[in-house]
Amino acid sequence: MTKENQTWFQSWFNTPYYHILYKNRDFKEAELFIKNLVRYLNLEPSDDSILDIACGQGRHSIFLNSLGFKVTGIDLSEKSIKRAQENTSESLNFEVHDMRDLYNYQFEIVLNLFTSFGYFDDESDNLNVIKTIKSSLKPNGIGVIDFMNSPQVIENLVAHNSYEANDITFNLSRDYTNGFINKNIQVLDNDQTFEYKEMVRAYVFEDFKKMLSIAGLHLLDCFGSYKLDPYNTKTSERLILIFMNND
């Protein structure tokens, strides 16, 4: 039995098993979301530069760049960034960076997508991510956080299930404990067994309102799906927050 000694996000996001488990993510849905955001925010490729925080292997960044935007993606996972950098161009850049640390450049748009938030035990670290977004926005710049709708996720939590891909078995167990939605991931690969986990703090709409206010960001709108449907606490699949840097 092999166990990782790093923080869960350093070990899990930097392993190939993470990308195998989630290889069937709906890319068309992600692209639809990006198109809806671009339309809603009335973005113009010639005018608007974009920072994608916690970009992973860059699926959102790459698609935004294909629409003509100048995009920078940052992520803590060296392996994910190395993979993303295969797509580097004059208008698309990727860099290893911890989202808790301030970034030294400013953009018209800053994105934090696909529940890439709430990973840290210390709530001040999660607030620091909001502060990174704030510092990375130009005056009147727009930020977007795409998070799970925690109440709906908790209500419909699947305690146990298994998944097979690439001749690898993933045994998954989930629970809600001490304010976190937890997923334990057992990986069976030939004669080896690995254990990983995911922990995401179950923030709700009011928590985000408070953090945005502390950081000096003004909430503009809130949506509950990638189609930008109105947000409903009980039924929405997502919690998508649109906010502005009024400085």
| Mean pLDDT level | 94
pLDDT < 50 runs, ≥5 residues: none
Q: CA-to-CA gap between the ends?
A: 52 Å
Going by CATH, what is the homologous superfamily of the largest domain?
Vaccinia Virus protein VP39
Give the topology.
Elements: E1 2-3, H1 8-12, H2 16-21, H3 27-41, E2 49-53, H4 59-66, E3 70-75, H5 78-84, E4 92-96, E5 107-112, H6 123-136, E6 137-148, H7 150-155, E7 160-165, E8 168-177, E9 180-189, E10 192-201, H8 205-214, E11 217-223, E12 238-245
Parallel strand pairs: 1-10, 2-3, 2-5, 3-4, 5-6
Antiparallel strand pairs: 6-12, 7-8, 8-9, 9-10, 11-12
What does this structure look like?
There is one protein chain. This protein has 247 residues and is of the alpha/beta class. The protein has 2 domains: 7-149 and 203-245, 3-Layer(aba) Sandwich (Rossmann fold), CATH 3.40.50.150; 153-199, Carboxypeptidase Inhibitor, Chain A (2-Layer Sandwich). 29% of the residues lie in helices and 35% in strands. The protein contains 8 helices and 12 strands. The radius of gyration is 18 Å and the shape is globular. The model has no long low-confidence stretch (mean pLDDT 94).
